[in-house]
Amino acid sequence: MLVIVDSGGANLASVRFALERLGVRGTLTADPAAIRSAERVILPGVGSAIAGMKRLRAKGLVGCVRGLTQPVLGICLGMQLLFEQSEEGSTPTLGLIPGQVVKLPESPGITVPHMGWNTISPARAVGLLDGIAPEARFYFVHSFAAPVNAFTVAACQHGAPFAAIAQRGNFSGVQFHPERSGPAGARLLQNFVEGRV
Predict the structure, then answer these.
(1) What torsion, rounded to 10 degrees, do the Cα atoms 126, 131, 132, 133 define?
(2) CA-CA distances (angstroms) from residue 92 to 23, 83, 98, 143?
(3) 3-state secondary structure of 88
(4) Judging by DSSP bridges, how do beta strands 97-103 and 121-122 pair with one another?
(5) Which of 26, 98, 129, 139 is deepest in the core (most CB within 10 A)?
(6) Is 76 a catalytic residue?
C-alpha cells in the first residue's frame, strides 16, 4: 500500500493523478496508523515551511513522519521539511536530513522563484534515477532550497548549486515536481513505487 500524507498542500491531486497514470492507487490520509502501516509514503507539499510544519503539527504527524522506517519520498516542500531547519522564518523542520534550507540568491539574469525545466547532475547512482537519461529535465517551482552536502544524490544550479535530490536512510527528497515532469518524472515515481530508491 502506498500512502500520500494529507499535508494540505496544493499538489496533492496532481501527485495522485500521476500515480494513477502509472496504475498505482495512492491513499490520501492524515491517519498516523495508516501512514505507519504503509509500504511506501509520499510527503508532498507546496508553499512555506512555516505553514507546512504548522499543518503537520495540527494533524499530529510530526512524530509519525519522524518515526517512519519504510521508504519515504518528500516532494518540493515535502523534501525541504525533511531537513533540520528552514531559513524561511527560522523554522525548525523534521530534522531527518542534516542541513538548513535557504533562500535562493538573486543575481543578474537569475530570478527567484526558480520556475521551469532544468537538468540535474547526479552525484552517485541511486535506484530513483534508474532508467532516466542524464540529459532528462525536471520541472521546478521554488524560492528556497537545501544545500549540496554529503546527503545530496543529485544537484541543480540556479544562481547557486542546490540539492535536487537528497537521501538519508529510508528518507529521500526531490526538490522538483516529478508529477509535472513528464516521462522522466513518471519513471522516478515508478522507481519509488517499485522499491528502487
Answers:
(1) 120
(2) 36, 9, 12, 18
(3) helix
(4) unpaired
(5) 26
(6) yes
Answer yes or no: 177 catalytic. yes
- Report cis status (omega within 30 of 0) of the bond before 147: no
pLDDT at position 10 is 63
pLDDT of amino acid 11 = 73
Question: Which strand ranges, in their side-by-side order, compose the sheet holding 26-29?
Answer: 26-29, 2-5, 40-43, 72-75, 171-174, 161-168, 152-157, 121-122
Phi, psi of 79 (to 5 degrees): -65, -45
Is 64 an active-site residue? no
CATH numbers and ranges of domains, the chain: 2-193 (3.40.50.880)
Catalytic choice (76, 114, 142, 158): 76
What pLDDT does residue 108 have?
Answer: 87
Rounded average pLDDT per 10-residue block, the chain, 197 residues: 85 89 93 97 92 94 97 97 94 96 91 95 95 96 96 96 98 97 97 95
The letter for the amino acid at 72 is V
Q: The C-alpha cell of 159 is what?
A: 544562481
Tell me, what's the pLDDT at 85? 96
CB 89 within 8 Å of CB 54:
no
Calpha distance 101→71 (Å, rounded): 22
Q: Of 114, 142, 158, 177, which one is the catalytic site residue?
A: 177
Q: What are phi and psi of 66, to 5 degrees?
A: -60, -30
How far apart CA 56 and CA 96 sit, in angstroms, is: 15
